[in-house]
Amino acid sequence: MDTPDSLAADLLKAAAGAIVVTRAVVQKGALNIKTDAQENVRKSAPRRNAHAAQTINYDTTVNATSIDAEIGYDKDKNKADGKRTGPGGIGNLLEFGGGGDHSPPHRDLGRALDAEEPRFEASLALAIERLL
Amino acid sequence: MTALTSAVMPLIVARGVLVGVGGKPADVDTRAYAVIWPDSPMRDPVTMNLTHAYVETWTTHGYGLSEEAAGIARDAVTDAVYALWGAEVGGRVVQYPEHLTTLPLSVDRDADPDLYSYTVEWRFRTSAA
Question: Where exactly are the structural domains of chain B?
Answer without folding.
Answer: 3-128
